[in-house]
Amino acid sequence: MSAPTTPEAVVDLLGLVAYGELLAFDRMAADARLAPDLRRRAALSEMAAAEIGNYRRLSDWLTALGATPDDVMAPYVEPLQAYHDSTEPKDWLEAVTKAYVGDAITDDFLGEIADRLDEPYRRLVRDVLHESRYADFAAAEIRAAIETDPRVANRLSMWARRLVGEALSQAGRVAAADRGALTALIARDGTDVQATFRRLTAKHTARMAAVGLNN
């Protein structure tokens, strides 16, 4: 039976997820301005509001644990910001593809780590990550665009491949970082990080096929 999760590991992971939620809010608010109509702009703005709600929930937990949210999020600013800076969408379809592909593989990675936490922290992180409205919305937008113009699939497939490469690269940076408690949590119970990445890639392949994109 595994040893209980250390408080340091809990704080480190909650800090990572909290910064991801804060960054997601920033990005969705910006992506909403790329929307082709007010209906889509409003939908994305509502989802951005949900992300800031998730951030506040995690921030409150961190505070209750005696941590300062700004301090525990700080080590993750560079790798996560680097991913978003290198994958800035040029238009609406690139934005929703990034949401569908990039966000999903990041959430899968964080979910695998969260499964090594004790309750109630495992449930907290899973609840935050399992918000599916944005992914469902993005998938519907991609399918509709391909139905209207099948040539779109090739462009978005190339974009998705770039996204997954960048996402896995940054996930690797997080996994390899010397964060002590978080590093131990990632490698808990002899976890094979490369095997984890293979599982993430397999899920990505299934997601691509589900919306008509090519791997």
Automatic annotation (TrEMBL):
It comes from Micromonospora palomenae. This is tRNA-(MS[2]IO[6]A)-hydroxylase MiaE-like protein. The lineage of its organism: Bacteria, Bacillati, Actinomycetota, Actinomycetes, Micromonosporales. Residues 8-188 form the Ferritin-like domain.
